[in-house]
Write a structure and sequence with these properties.
The protein is about 45% helix and about 15% strand. By secondary structure, the chain is of the alpha+beta class.
């Protein structure tokens, strides 16, 4: 798929077909995250790939009872690795760079999923401490984003966007 087609075809989907995501596609998504830019090329994030129905069910409560998570074939959680970023960039790495790295990696994963013929939805509403407990994250790993991925069982309409003039200021 061409890059701009990927951007046009990426839509948030919350209803997925009951079809497992193939290992080859999961690997392609993970590989795409590895090409994401990161502060000092530290890649200050950890990716948790969730297949377990039990873990997904636990994530529902941690994510404000967004029920679709339990029915999603694949859930990928991106955590900021604060310790890794702090090791080079001290407080700024701890407070910002690790979160940026995890966020960019998730965005790349979302675009890669689209390229693989999959759909996804970015979940930002969740309780970080509870998600950390469920995925057994290290104390220095902070969940930043949950990405639900699978084959779409719906085709949502494109949502409108703010006008460029409302978002861009040129000097």
């Amino acid at each position: 798929m061409e890059f701009y087609d990927i951007l046009r075809n990426r839509h948030s989907v919350r209803h997925f077909a009951d079809k497992r995501v193939e290992a080859k596609k999961i690997r392609a998504i993970v590989d795409a995250t590895m090409s994401a830019p990161s502060a000092g090329n530290l890649q200050s994030y950890r990716i948790h790939v969730i297949h377990s129905a039990e873990a997904k069910e636990s994530l529902v409560a941690a994510a404000s009872y967004q029920e679709f998570i339990a029915k999603t074939p694949l859930v990928v959680i991106f955590c900021a690795d604060l310790k890794r970023a702090e090791s080079k960039y001290e407080q700024r790495g701890f407070e910002l760079y690790a979160t940026q790295d995890a966020t960019i990696a998730c965005a790349y994963a979302q675009l890669a999923a689209t390229n693989e013929g999959l759909s996804s939805v970015w979940v930002g509403g969740f309780e970080p401490l509870e998600v950390s407990r469920i995925i057994q994250a290290m104390p220095y790993e902070v969940p930043v984003a949950i990405l639900a991925v699978g084959y779409p069982a719906e085709t949502p309409e494109a949502t409108g966007r703010r006008p460029v003039s409302d978002m861009v200021k040129e000097l």
